[in-house]
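Tokens in:
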């Protein structure tokens, strides 16, 4: 095989490849032997079909499959030998080809630019931690205590009021007739929350233990039995008990009921919980600091084909007229994203960063835990949308790269208050909304990683003719 770079126009290259016809013949002989041993033709014993017969019936198809294999193997080898990393999918232009001919073709490829990433070691970033005031922790614990009220049985003569818990049995009728779903036992209702049927619990105010009360309501739109929706129903309620809310004592016993060792341990856990609530958002702020500095790294040329692909992604759902008016903005945004992606990808390759299948599955399992009961839905979504798996992998890849950059960059630790954290996040959110109005989100890592990893599969601009598939045990012959 002879390889030569014929022309260079910026990042665009034309690589000429020459394969001697003897190599083609060798591959053809192997393929004919494989077909001969598997094909079954009337009038011939297995393995005894003459080559002339095989050539007449299957020659073009066999040559097409051999040509495909040779092009795939040699084009990949040619790019590796010339140390060219393709930006996108190379194209192959066949010049000379045939069963008894030398093979000559040209690889038309856009090369990824060379990027010097040494300056990444000089990146500076702020690593935030939030100092939680003890008052914040106490307030959160008090809120938890309020949501976990205890109820104590009221005096027999005590009348139910807002906030009390009423326990009752009921039988309901519509136009004097029983209906499906119209009966309940030991139903518990906290008065004033209006959580049962709108206007129901107000009518129980003033009732006491062993009272009977008729409650009239209109069954709501979301009533399970659709035939009774918007019908007036009468609920005959037998009050079994009335309980008054009791303030929960915040002590060691309370803490143990929440899974802590004691009250001090609960405070530690709640403090960590509040801190963790800010951690992810502040980490995103830190990541943005790093990405902003990466944008300053010089990249002489950005592949036009990647820019075009990125613009198409950004323009999804945008009206044609708006696209024309904002074409320059989309182009600048695409260049910015591609540039950042190229830098991240270069760092990832140099540092041999990869996302394993196990890491990908762990992330999906994490999503399962975040949405209990929806596991099957999530699983089916990924099965039906393989591109989302690629996108998730791209996000993990970028996150691993940024974590690696952090380990090499210069960190400035900052301890801030909860109020300061909220101000920082609000300012960043306002800035984001202003800068990215009408903008679609897209991962930097996946934008380049996905487009470059598939680039080894070259497309052919001139294809050899092929005959119909071989109707035998032989694998399907490619029509390329």
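Residues out:
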């Amino acid at each position: 095989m002879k390889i030569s770079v014929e022309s260079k126009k910026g990042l665009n290259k034309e690589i000429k490849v020459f394969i001697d016809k003897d190599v083609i013949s060798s591959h053809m002989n192997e393929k004919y032997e494989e077909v001969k041993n598997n094909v079954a033709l009337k009038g011939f014993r297995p393995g005894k079909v003459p080559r002339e017969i095989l050539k007449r019936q299957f020659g073009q198809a066999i040559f097409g499959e051999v040509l495909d294999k040779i092009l795939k193997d040699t084009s990949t080898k040619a790019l590796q030998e010339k140390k060219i990393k393709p930006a996108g999918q190379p194209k192959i232009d066949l010049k000379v080809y045939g069963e008894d001919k030398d093979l000559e073709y040209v690889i038309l490829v856009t090369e990824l630019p060379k990027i010097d990433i040494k300056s990444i070691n000089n990146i500076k970033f702020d690593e935030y931690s939030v100092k939680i005031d003890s008052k914040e922790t106490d307030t959160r614990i008090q809120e938890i205590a309020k949501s976990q009220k205890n109820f104590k049985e009221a005096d027999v003569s005590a009348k139910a009021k807002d906030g009390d818990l009423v326990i009752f049995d009921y039988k309901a009728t519509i136009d004097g007739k029983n209906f499906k779903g119209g009966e309940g036992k030991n139903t518990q209702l906290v008065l004033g929350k209006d959580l049962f049927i709108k206007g129901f619990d107000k009518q129980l105010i003033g009732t006491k233990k062993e009272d009977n009360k008729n409650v009239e309501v209109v069954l709501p739109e979301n009533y399970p039995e659709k035939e009774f929706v918007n019908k007036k129903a009468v609920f005959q309620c037998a009050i079994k008990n009335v309980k008054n809310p009791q303030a929960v004592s915040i002590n060691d016993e309370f803490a143990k009921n929440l899974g802590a060792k004691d009250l001090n341990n609960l405070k530690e856990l709640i403090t960590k919980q509040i801190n963790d609530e800010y951690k992810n958002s502040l980490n995103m702020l830190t990541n943005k600091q790093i990405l902003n500095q990466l944008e300053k790294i010089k990249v002489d040329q950005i592949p036009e084909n990647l820019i075009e692909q990125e613009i198409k992604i950004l323009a999804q759902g945008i009206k044609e007229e708006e696209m024309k008016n904002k074409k320059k903005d989309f182009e600048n945004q695409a260049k910015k994203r591609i540039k950042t992606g190229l830098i991240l990808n270069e760092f990832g390759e140099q540092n041999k960063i990869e996302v394993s299948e196990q890491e990908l599955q762990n992330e999906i399992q994490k999503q399962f835990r975040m949405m209990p009961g929806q596991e099957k839905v999530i699983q089916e979504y990924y099965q039906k949308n393989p591109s989302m798996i690629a996108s998730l992998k791209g996000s993990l890849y970028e996150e691993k790269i940024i974590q690696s950059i952090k380990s090499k960059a210069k960190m400035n630790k900052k301890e801030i208050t909860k109020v300061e954290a909220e101000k920082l996040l609000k300012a960043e959110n306002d800035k984001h909304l202003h800068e990215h109005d009408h903008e679609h989100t897209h991962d930097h890592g996946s934008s380049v990683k996905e487009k470059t990893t598939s680039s080894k599969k070259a497309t052919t601009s001139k294809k050899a003719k092929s005959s119909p598939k071989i109707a035998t045990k032989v694998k399907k012959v490619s029509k390329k």
